[in-house]
Amino acid sequence: MSGLLATATAAKSGSTVTAIVNGTETVVQVARDLTVAAGDVLLVERIGSQWFAVIRAFAAAAPPVEEQVRPPDPKPAVVTGTLVVSPVETRSYRPSYGWRTDNDDVYQGQYGGWGNHTGAVFYGSKPRSLSGATVTDAKIRVKRLSAGTYAAQSTTLRLVTQATRPGGAPSLGSSTSGPSLAVGSTSTFTIPDSWAQAMVNGTAGGLAIYDSGGSPYVRLAGRGSWSPAFTLTISWRRG
Questions:
Q1: How far, rounded to the nearest angstrom, does the alpha carbon of residue 200 sit from its chain's CA centroid?
Q2: Phi-psi bin for 22: left (phi > 0), alpha (psi -120 to 50), beta?
Q3: Is residue 196 classed as helix, strand or coil in its secondary structure?
Q4: Contact 92/78 with Cβ under 8 angstroms?
C-alpha cells in the first residue's frame, strides 16, 4: 500500500481527526474501528479530495513525522505502432449509371460519353480501432492499369466521408494532388496525416480520385485486379 505518514494533533472525534499531512493541519477521515490519540502516527491515503487514515504506525506515539512529498507520477511511456488496413471495397461511380458492376477498379475522368467517374475506396471500421492515437504518417499502395494515355497522368485525390459504399454518389471532402503514374507502374503514395486521422476519429472513411472536368482519364487497379491495391498503412503514437 502506498501512502504518507501523518501525525495526529488531537484524539479522534466522531469519524475524523486532525493531523499534520505534508506540513499542513488537515481533517482526516478515520476508519470506523481505528482509535487515534494525539501524537499517533497514521498512514494516510488521499482518495479524491479527502484524506483517510488507514492504520496507526508504530507501537506507540512517535515524534512528529517530517513533511513527506509524494513523488510526481512518471511520464507515461510513448507507444508507437503501425496499422495496415485493406479496403473493404473499391468501386467507381458515374452519375447517369451509378456504381460500375463490370469491375472494381478505381477510375478518374470520362471516356467518350459514358460519364465522369468518381473512383472510390472504402476502409470500413478498422481505422477506428486506433481511436485516441495520433497519426504520424499514412501511405497507400497504387497501380495504374491500361486506359487513357500511356504516359504518367495526374490524379486528384479526395477524402471520402463514408466508410462503406453508399447507394448513390460518395460524399467528397478535402482534395490534394494524387498519384501520377504511367500505365503498368506501381507506387507507394503518402496521403495527408490529417486524412488518416479523420478516419481514425470516425469523421471520414475512404478515398477517391475525381476530376470535375473529366480529364485526364485514369484507371487505377482495384482489389480484384491487384490484391495490394489501396492498402493503407497508418503509423501512429500514443502518449
A1: 5
A2: left
A3: helix
A4: no
**SS3 call for 91:** strand
**Residue carrying the nine cell digits 481505528:** 34
Domain that holds residue 193: 79-238
Residue whose C-alpha is closest to residue 15's, from 3, 5, 30, 26: 30
Judge whether 64 lies within some domain: no
For 131-176, what is each residue's pLDDT tens digit?
A: 999 999 999 999 999 999 999 999 999 999 999 999 999 999 999 9
Q: Are residues 152 and 88 in the same domain?
A: yes
In a domain, 151, yes or no: yes
Which of 38, 75, 24, 34 has the alpha carbon at shortest distance from 4? 24
Who contacts 78 (Cβ-Cβ below 8 Å, separation ≥6)?
237, 238, 239
pTM over 0.85: no
* Model confidence band, residue 1 (pLDDT cutoffs 50, 70, 90): very low
CATH number for position 36: 2.40.50.140
